[in-house]
Amino acid sequence: MTQDEIIKMAHQTSKEWLKEFPTPEETAHPVPKRFLEIFAKLVAEKEREACAQILANTDLGGLNDHPLQNWVAGMLFEYIKTIRARGQE
Which SS3 state, helix, strand or coil, does residue 32 take? Predict the structure, then answer.
């Protein structure tokens, strides 16, 4: 994840947090807890998808005609599904 992507997520977090009309007590705090929760969620989503994409882009060309090729491809698919599902918990 690049610095620009993180900054973009921080701006998105700010917009989402402000929609909730934070209390004066929350806005007086240097870094409001809800702001950090939203930001952490966005960062985690981005990282999960980046991990899933690494697996999705795995080159299985070296396993051509190998008896385990389908098994490995199936396992990668299951890992991708599991990583993405973590965001739904």
Answer: coil
Locus of tokens 């240097």: 30
> How many domains, the chain?
1
Q: Write the pLDDT tens digit of every residue in 11-58.
A: 888 777 777 766 776 666 666 778 878 888 888 899 999 999 999 999
Distance from C-alpha of 6 to C-alpha of 25, rounded to nearest angstrom:
26
Q: Which domain holds residue 56?
A: 3-88
Contact between 1 and 46 under an 8 Å Cβ cutoff? The reply is: yes
Over residues 49-84, the pLDDT tens digits come to: 999 999 999 999 899 989 999 999 999 999 999 999
